[in-house]
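Hypothesis: this fold can be encoded by more than one sequence.
Test: take the structure tokens below, design a sequence, compare later.
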């Protein structure tokens, strides 16, 4: 294979999140409308590697994917050894806004998957004026725990076990090399981080009582969900769209819970029309 250098640039931003200093790693590529990408529980921004390399996207969008604190190349804040990581909806919303401000992103589009797909609903409810559009991948208002997660914080649990927990969420039709790379990211998660994220996903992030208050006229919302997802099911996304109103959900054939990383070629065929609509809105269309 001929050597090539990808156009992705990785850097750190130092900023305060909830009054504590953080050093947050992010990667970016392209120019134009900011597109901030949020990864899934227990993983990191590498899930958006294909999107960052997609010239059809980066010619009009500045794609930014960051690792949440405690994830990937973003370390926990000082003093982490004396606390237990547990993500809440309020903390997640403030985190996203802090990154937007630190990187000086002017009314970005935010696209999140799984826990990221949930928090975009919170952003739509609480801060619609801050965003040009919101894209929810695998978005649901709530997901009941379907297996015991209390043991995820044990010191002898991690790596392959985390990957095993989510392996069934990768569609059987996804290319094996992408599916396995998606699982590899989970194998590298820090102790207790996956379980801490699931606190938001299964408990604190429940937005069912407020879904009807979201107004898509204040910020356009797009929902895309893989047909094989048994965590955030297609029906769960359809229910969110129905309750918000004026949102047409897209159920992606042959896709699972991690569309952008497990099958990037198929995913882009669904995403590009959404980005075209956002560009048209930016042009006044």
């Amino acid at each position: 294979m001929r050597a090539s250098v990808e156009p992705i640039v990785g850097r750190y931003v130092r900023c305060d999140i909830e009054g504590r200093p953080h050093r947050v790693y992010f990667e970016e590529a392209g120019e134009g409308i900011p597109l901030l990408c949020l990864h899934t529980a227990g993983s990191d921004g590498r899930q958006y590697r294909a999107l960052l390399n997609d010239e059809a996207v980066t010619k009009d969008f500045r794609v930014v994917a960051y690792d949440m604190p405690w994830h990937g190349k973003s370390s926990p804040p000082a003093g982490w050894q004396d606390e237990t990581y547990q993500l809440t909806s309020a903390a997640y919303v403030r985190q996203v806004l802090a990154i937007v401000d630190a990187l000086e992103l002017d009314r970005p589009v935010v696209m999140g998957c799984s826990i990221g797909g949930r928090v975009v609903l919170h952003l739509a409810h609480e801060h619609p004026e801050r965003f040009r559009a919101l894209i929810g991948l695998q978005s649901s208002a709530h997901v009941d725990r379907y297996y015991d997660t209390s043991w995820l914080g044990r010191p002898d649990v991690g790596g392959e076990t985390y990957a095993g927990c989510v392996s069934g969420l990768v569609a059987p039709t996804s290319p094996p090399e992408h599916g396995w790379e998606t699982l590899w990211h989970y194998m590298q998660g820090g102790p207790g981080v996956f379980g801490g994220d699931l606190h938001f996903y299964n408990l604190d992030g429940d937005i069912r009582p407020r879904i009807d208050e979201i107004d898509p006229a204040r910020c356009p919302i797009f929902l895309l969900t893989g047909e094989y997802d048994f965590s955030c099911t297609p029906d769960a996304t359809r229910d969110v769209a129905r309750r918000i109103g004026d949102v047409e959900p897209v159920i992606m054939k042959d896709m699972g819970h991690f569309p952008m990383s497990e099958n990037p070629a198929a995913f882009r065929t669904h995403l590009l029309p959404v980005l075209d609509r956002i560009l048209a809105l930016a042009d006044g269309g």
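The first strand starts at residue 9 and ends at 17. The CA atoms of residues 32 and 85 lie 35 Å apart.
Hypothesis status: open.
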